[in-house]
Design goal:
Layout: E1 10-14, H1 20-33, E2 37-41, E3 47-49, E4 55-57, E5 60-61, E6 74-77, H2 83-88, H3 91-102, E7 106-110, H4 114-119, E8 127-128, H5 135-140, E9 144-145, E10 151-154, E11 157-160, H6 166-178, H7 180-190
Parallel strand pairs: 1-2, 1-6, 2-5, 6-7, 7-11, 8-9
Antiparallel strand pairs: 3-4, 10-11
Helix pairs in contact: 1-6, 6-7
Length: 193
């Protein structure tokens, strides 16, 4: 049962070809922590199919009448191919990411998707990480890449490396909003020691 612990709200964006664990584990961990979270399709369809042909049903779409990015406190990008390029090609989402970052609001990306943040100028002068195949893109756009870190938080921006680091990525979001005690509670519940 969901027990809300904060008024902060997170949107995880789903594009065709997303990476399943990187998306769903974030939603799961935030749910466990009591952080409201919506699964948001970037298309007009609520059904979105992953890179490995797993279809999930989102509860919102950016095409919904009245959808407003400003309903959220953090925007989260899973990775995956072609998920990441599809996210990158979504102009309304990219515009919102820049606006959020400039306003000091939460922005998070994992795997290949930190490269989107880098290309938008969001990682310039910030510590970050990404999938090893995309760390060079982050560095080329002015990020201080920390290749050995599972997840990196620099102010309002959180980045991570990939599927195996997805839980740590999600826990960094929990820590951002609720602190270490909430992280410890989730870790105990999921047997992460």
């Amino acid at each position: 049962m969901f027990r809300q612990k904060t008024d902060k709200r997170v949107a995880v964006f789903f594009a065709e070809g997303f990476e399943e664990v990187e998306a769903i584990s974030v939603v799961d961990v935030l749910f466990r922590a009591g952080i409201p979270c919506d699964m948001v399709s970037i298309t007009g369809e609520l059904n979105v199919t992953s890179s490995r042909e797993v279809t999930v049903v989102c509860n919102r779409s950016i095409a919904d009448e009245g959808f407003d990015f400003d309903e959220y406190d953090m925007l989260v990008l899973p990775g995956g191919i072609p998920g990441m390029p599809n996210l990158r090609d979504c102009a309304p989402l990219c515009n919102a990411l820049v606006r959020f970052a400039e306003a000091g609001r939460g922005v998070a990306a994992i795997c290949a998707s930190p490269s989107i943040l880098a290309e938008l100028g969001i990682l310039r002068g910030r510590r970050a990480t990404a999938n090893p195949g995309f760390q060079d893109v982050c560095a080329e756009h002015g990020a201080e890449v920390l290749p050995g870190e599972r997840a990196v938080r620099d102010g309002n921006v959180i980045t991570s490396q990939g599927m195996a680091t997805a839980t740590y990525f999600a826990l960094e979001i929990v820590d951002y909003y609720l602190g270490k005690d909430a992280v410890d509670d989730v870790c105990e519940g999921i047997v992460l020691m």
